[in-house]
Each structure stands twice: as structure tokens, then as C-alpha cells.
Amino acid sequence: MKAVEHEEIKRIAQLARLDLDPAETNDLATQLTDILRYMEQLNSVDTQGVEPLSHVHEIVNQLRADEVQSSLDRETALRNAPDADGTYFKVPRVIKD
User: Fold this and answer.
1) Which residues sit opposite 89 in a β-bridge?
2) CB 25 within 8 A of CB 10
3) What average pLDDT does this structure show over 12-31?
């Protein structure tokens, strides 16, 4: 397992839009190298016969039945609007020319 190079750290920092000083670059290179070495140890663990899992607890989605229900009519929906023209909600313009 090779050490993480400073150029790799600088490239990652650039992609993440981080401005790192040389001391931070050194620290991150050391930390990432340590993390990768630890992960490399996990490759030596015998996982034969162990089923992969996505969560430690067995979770089942509790979904409600998909049933058609009535919705608000336009007049009721627009009744509480701060500003409407009778058909649509009116909102302040957010995109400037």
C-alpha cells in the first residue's frame, strides 16, 4: 500500500474547492494514508459465507396503500395565498434580467 501523495491531496482539495496550506496538506496525506492502511487490513478478514448487508437491523418499509383521494379544488387552494390572480399563485420574481 503506497502513501497518498501530496499532489493527490492538492487535486482533491481543488475538486472540493478547499484552500489548504502546506501543513494541512501534510496532515491530510498522513491521515488518508492511515485510513487506507486500516482499510487494507480489512481485506485480510475471511468473509466467506457472510452475506452482505446494507443495515445492521432488518428494516422493512412501512408504506401506506396507494389510494386515490380527493384533493383541494383551485378556489380552496388559492384562498390562503398571499397573492393570486384567481387561477395561479403570484410570487415575487427571483430571476433578475
Assistant:
1) 84
2) yes
3) 94
Q: Please give the biggest Cα pair distance in the chain.
A: 68
Within-domain flag for 21: yes
pLDDT digits (tens, 9 = 90+) for 57-72: 887 888 888 899 999 8
Distance from C-alpha of 56 to C-alpha of 43, rounded to nearest angstrom:
20
Per-residue pLDDT, 22? 92
Alpha carbons 97 and 95: distance in angstroms, whole number: 7
Per the model's pLDDT, the better-predicted residue between 53 and 39 turns out to be 39
DSSP H or E segment with residue 40: helix 22-42
**Does a structural domain hold residue 29?**
yes
User: Is 68 within a domain?
Assistant: no
Number of structural domains in the chain: 1
Q: Look up residue 37 and give its amino acid.
A: R
- Cβ–Cβ under 8 Å, residues 93 and 83: no
Is 17 among the domain residues?
yes
- Residue 22 is part of which domain span? 6-42
